[in-house]
Amino acid sequence: MTRSELQALRAGHVFDGVDVRGPGMVLVEDGVIRDVDFTGAAPPEHAAVTDFGPDGWLLPGLIDAHVHLCWDGTEDAVAHVPSDDRETVLKTAHAAAATTLRDGVTNVRDVGDRDYLSLALHEQMSPTERPEIVAAGPPITTRGGHCHFLGGEAEGPDALRAAVRERAERGCELVKVMASGGNVTPGSNSLHQQYDRSDLRLIADEAHRYGLRAAAHAHAVQAVTDVVEAGFDTVEHFSLFTPEGVELRQEVLDEVVRRGTFVSLTVGMLPGLPVPAPALAARFAAIIEVMSKIIASGARGVPGTDAGVGLGKPHGIYPHALTHLAELGMPARGVLRAATSEAAEAVGRAGEQGRAASPHRCRPPGARRLTPRRHRRRHQCPRGVPGRPPSPLTHSTPHATKGPQHICARPAGQPS
Q: How far apart are CA 214 and CA 201, in angstroms?
């Protein structure tokens, strides 16, 4: 029998998914981490050695908890998904997945597609060409509700049970529900609650009965409250919208912390967008303040870019998401944990990904860049991480964009 190649990756710094350590050596065989050594031991004789030097970094692959691979990140992204033919949408998703992997993101959670195309994409693309995909399929929504054009309409207990069962039988790892209206569906209102608490509890319980994770899109305050009480694993956006603006309810946040519910924070924006109108700018400022308080509370926040949804959210936006978390007050090591070990647990891949530990899955070193190609500029490392920031078991570096420009957004950059 031919022995598979053993790779020995060495660097002066290793982020193991929890803390910074080093110098260290990571042994990888067949895409799985077999050992992590900090004793200074020599590599095994038969190993292929890659040494990134004393200033090099190694860390687990990065994870984006909220993407839409079928959406192309253009002004008409939403319109293209239902109107384009299957092969065109798959081509869009293929390009999005390749871009995402080149930027160092090795796992994504696709929280809304058409016709279960993310599952097809996972089968059609080689694992070396795409990130791992945790797929939700079409999000469950009400008749004519938010993202109804993706095909996930279901109302009433029997239909909701059938919708969850269909996703389980097709091979999804996640059930996504639109608990409130959203910003990208014509006629939808983000303040409108689409399902009551009993329906939400039924969906979450059914998902868990099939061994699936449960995620809920929730903008309105009452929708957020009911999603948390219903037992969802993650709350997407967590916007806390009210008719008067944005309101952080401390009792809801306290319950999130108590339960350990994950908050998928919608972060990262393409820099250089026009300054929005005063009313919209004030709304974004309020959302930013709320996200800062969520982070300060100790809630389990993970980065979810909403990549693909519009002009401000192209695929490849992830480096700006990490910068955004740091600017919102998350410590540098907390940012790295959120992007690796915490995100792995949030998307249901704890024990497989997110840690530089044995045995965990690993992508071999490659020429992945974490500078979005659509907006190259000088970058700097978030404070608290020595030297250059680490890269996902590769010699390229995730950079952080200077300045807060990407926080201001126009409507095209809103969360979905």
A: 10
